[in-house]
Automatic annotation (TrEMBL):
This is P pilus assembly protein, chaperone PapD. SUPFAM superfamilies: PapD-like. InterPro entries: Ig-like_fold, PapD-like_sf. Keywords: Signal. Residues 1-17 form the signal peptide. Gene3D superfamilies: Immunoglobulins. It comes from Enterovibrio qingdaonensis.
Length: 225
């Protein structure tokens, strides 16, 4: 099939659009603590939405896989909704599990628009050429969950070749922009995110950063700022 025929079919198919606010949430395991996500239907069609929770499992290098979390204690209400054109739905999130966790956890709250059927693709002669396609649309909000007693513990090791390895030995996630780093020579990286970019650092992980030749080699101790 010619590419322009596919493009025309896609352009003629109106996808439902949702606006999610916020897209990243940090919530506590403390009892009675809750959070909200706001969905607005900015399309021209009524939109049904189903909600599910996915667990992000990180390896030692900071990479992750997404797993189903059907039995999770992170509860989202309502579990489904139908948004009218211009309509708004507030979804409430609450942790119903143990207030003390071995380490912080991260989740996707997934808002799914059930499969929509695209129209038959029309070729250059005006004839249908292929069966309709069913498309399921997902919108994700990222949730970081932690206990009040948990803390990150960051160190930055820079080799003589300029390779930087960021290690979090703590039991809580953090972001690079929340720390400064102190070298034994009293050299300070006050805003490390300007050198390495903003980074999310899961608990008990080591992440290799981009090489930066301007940083003094050695071991830096992280300090919250």
């Amino acid at each position: 099939m010619k590419p322009f025929c596919i493009l025309l079919a896609l352009l003629s198919f109106e996808l439902t659009a949702l606006t999610i606010t916020p897209t990243v949430l940090e919530i506590s395991t403390q009892p009675k603590m809750s959070a909200q996500i706001r969905l607005e239907n900015t399309s021209s069609k009524q939109t049904p939405i189903e909600v599910s929770v996915r667990h992000l499992v990180f390896d030692d290098g900071g990479s992750f896989v997404v797993e189903d979390a059907e039995n999770t204690d992170l509860v989202v209400f309502p579990p489904a909704a139908v948004l009218d054109v211009g309509g708004v739905q507030i979804f409430r999130l609450q942790w119903l599990g143990n207030a003390s966790l071995p380490q912080s956890q991260s989740f996707f709250v997934r808002f799914t628009q059930p499969a929509l059927e695209m129209p038959e693709i029309i070729d250059g002669t005006g004839n249908e050429s292929g069966s309709a396609l069913a498309i399921e649309i997902h919108y994700n909000a990222l949730i970081h969950l932690s206990s009040p007693s948990q803390k990150p513990d960051l160190t930055l090791r820079v080799s003589s070749e300029g390779v930087a390895t960021l290690t979090n030995r703590g039991d809580r996630y953090t972001f690079l922009s929340r720390f400064r780093f102190l070298h034994q020579t009293k050299h300070v990286l006050e805003m490390p995110e300007t050198l390495f970019g903003e980074r999310f650092i899961p608990p008990n992980t080591s992440v290799v950063l981009d090489s930066v030749s301007s940083v003094v080699p050695g071991i830096y101790v992280g300090e919250s700022r």
